[in-house]
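Sequence, please.
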């Protein structure tokens, strides 16, 4: 177990000031509930007959979404959380002012930022985090204050979840609740239930022409429509086969999409969308909630692994099944029976250790160096053949402090390599692990590099990474199936790389190491490799800082045919799965160093010409040549 790297929780928490200053208007808003209610009452009384103040407040609300919400927004909820016991308690009043907390402020800012850029956003949340209310408040603010009278669309799985009288789960009932608490001078005319401009699944702002329409998520929903923003609520609950069509159709319907849901399994379009890297994912975890996360702390389990807990979480674990905890609290898309890895370990590891890289690089061999010359640079361990430069979007992500631009040369390293076709569908990945500390120090990841170019990339990475004497090179282990065959042919056959994995017989006692280079993927070897990864994570022997890689591991499932792989490929054939490169396989390959020769066994580095050791070896070679000649041709014997 690695005890040197200890996580820390952000303090103070909850980080809610008594008075919040709006960064856009400079106005102050009390954040404590009772003070906020009293302040609102005073503000409304002052503005009731003061048209100038009304105009100023309307201008401030138009300028600042957060000011409008914290000054005029109300919400509805039935339960609170006891800060001491963590148990749910009935709210004193279900009608409470909407006072945003730190993580919600970040979400609202993301909404505005993505609208300006025309980008989609997906909310990855546990239950009862107020995500639906946040999305509805954003849509309502646009309906009230956007100068161009936008057309907005809200979709949920069935009509009752879009608009049903008395059902506070329904999206339009939330809008009605917001309008009900707005002052008359801010609320457009006839938009309350029963009003002329508030009909079934439709709400019109007659002053600006803005409208919000609702639909159930069916195969033909939003067909031919054009909207500024579309909200896809409870998207994980969309019927199988319809989710992909909805995702494709709404791309042309809306300038910006907000996708919100509670998880409902790995095979849903929501889970695939969240994972495929085409949309911004915003997480809302229980430990960010000011009540559910109150008193949060770090605790170690029996194996010494760190996990984030709170009194509320402790109580929920005692009354829920592990499956409920996984889906409703830890917002995991995969049900416990479908996963390959122990999800709790990976989710906790991600929360504790995942972080942005310290620096990113682009790296390759110099163009002037031919493939025939690479072997000489590798033989001499000459890192001058590699060129690397810092880049904010470079494919090499580094999580360790560098010395003269390179990793610590007193340590030894192992590369886990998984190669794709390099046609943009999946990533080729190089995972670099320090063998002494068990920490993943770097990750190279790109989807558009073909296998023959990957050989030069890996050679450059190996020379840059180096390592401890006498090897001074990392140990390479790559998957040789599919594109990996061409990669291995170049690395071993052309570059003469000396320090790599050789296939080992499986399923037999004392399986022998064969002459075949690279790791061969079959159902038995893949299961053994990934089980080792799961075991290492359970025992705390590996520190992985890559959020992308850890997230990817959460989606590894058992396929119907008994094989293992990402849920995204559940509908692909076995050939397509084998040519798919990913971080999980690269990480797993970097962990198994049972076949790596001992450092003192790797002694193929020639001494510098002219050195005493070089001269000694020259004399010994000459002596051995003379001895072999005499033994062969000495007829006096």
């Amino acid at each position: 177990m690695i005890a040197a790297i200890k996580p820390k929780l952000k303090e103070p928490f909850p980080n809610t000031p008594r008075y919040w200053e709006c960064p856009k208007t400079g106005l102050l808003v009390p954040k404590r509930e009772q003070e906020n209610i009293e302040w609102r009452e005073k503000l409304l009384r002052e503005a009731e007959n003061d048209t100038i103040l009304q105009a100023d407040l309307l201008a401030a609300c138009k300028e600042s979404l957060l000011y409008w919400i914290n000054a005029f927004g109300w919400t509805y909820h039935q339960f609170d959380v006891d800060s001491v016991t963590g148990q749910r308690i009935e709210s004193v009043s279900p009608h409470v002012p909407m006072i945003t907390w730190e993580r919600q402020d970040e979400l609202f800012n993301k909404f505005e930022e993505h609208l300006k850029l025309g980008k989609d956003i997906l909310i990855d949340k546990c239950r009862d985090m107020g995500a639906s209310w946040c999305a509805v408040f954003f849509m309502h603010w646009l309906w009230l204050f956007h100068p161009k009278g936008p057309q907005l669309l809200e979709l949920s799985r069935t009509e009752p979840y879009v608009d049903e009288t008395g059902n506070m789960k329904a999206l339009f009932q939330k809008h009605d609740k917001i309008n009900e608490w707005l002052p008359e001078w801010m609320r457009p005319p006839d938009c309350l239930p029963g009003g002329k401009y508030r009909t079934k699944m439709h709400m019109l702002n007659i002053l600006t022409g803005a409208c919000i329409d609702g639909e159930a998520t069916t195969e033909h929903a939003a067909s031919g429509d054009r909207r500024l923003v579309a909200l896809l609520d409870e998207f994980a609950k969309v019927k199988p086969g319809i989710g992909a069509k909805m995702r494709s159709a709404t791309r042309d319907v809306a300038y910006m999409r907000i996708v919100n849901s509670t998880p409902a399994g790995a095979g849903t379009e929501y889970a695939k969308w969240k994972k495929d890297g085409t949309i911004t994912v915003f997480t809302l975890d229980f430990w960010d909630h000011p009540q559910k996360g109150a008193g949060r702390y770090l605790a170690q389990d029996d194996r010494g692994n760190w996990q984030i807990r709170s009194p509320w979480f402790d109580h929920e674990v005692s009354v829920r099944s592990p499956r409920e905890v996984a889906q409703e609290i830890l917002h995991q898309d995969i049900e416990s029976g479908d996963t390959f890895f122990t999800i709790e370990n990976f989710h906790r590891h991600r929360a504790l250790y995942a972080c942005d890289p310290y620096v990113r690089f682009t790296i390759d061999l110099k163009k002037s160096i031919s493939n025939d010359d690479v072997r000489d640079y590798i033989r001499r361990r000459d890192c001058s053949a590699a060129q690397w430069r810092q880049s904010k979007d470079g494919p090499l992500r580094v999580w360790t402090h560098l010395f003269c631009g390179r990793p610590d040369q007193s340590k030894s390293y192992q590369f886990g390599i998984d190669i794709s076709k390099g046609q943009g569908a999946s990533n080729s990945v190089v995972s670099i692990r320090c063998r002494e500390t068990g920490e993943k120090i770097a990750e190279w990841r790109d989807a558009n590099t073909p296998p023959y170019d990957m050989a030069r990339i890996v050679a450059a990475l190996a020379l840059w990474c180096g390592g401890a004497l006498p090897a001074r090179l990392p140990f390479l282990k790559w998957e040789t199936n599919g594109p990996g065959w061409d990669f291995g042919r170049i690395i071993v056959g052309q570059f003469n790389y000396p320090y790599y994995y050789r296939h080992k017989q499986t399923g037999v006692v004392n399986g022998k190491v064969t002459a075949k280079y690279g790791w061969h993927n079959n159902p038995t070897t893949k299961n053994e490799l990934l089980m080792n990864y799961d075991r290492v994570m359970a025992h705390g022997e590996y520190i992985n800082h890559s959020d992308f890689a850890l997230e990817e591991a959460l989606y590894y499932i058992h396929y119907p045919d008994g094989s293992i792989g990402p849920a995204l490929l559940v509908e692909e054939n076995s050939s397509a799965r084998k040519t798919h490169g990913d971080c999980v396989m690269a990480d797993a390959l970097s962990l198994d160093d049972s076949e790596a020769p001992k450092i003192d066994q790797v002694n193929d580095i020639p001494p510098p010409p002219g050195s005493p050791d070089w001269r000694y070896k020259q004399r010994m070679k000459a002596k051995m040549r003379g001895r072999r000649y005499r033994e062969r041709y000495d007829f006096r014997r």
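Residues 24 and 161 are 35 Å apart (CA to CA).
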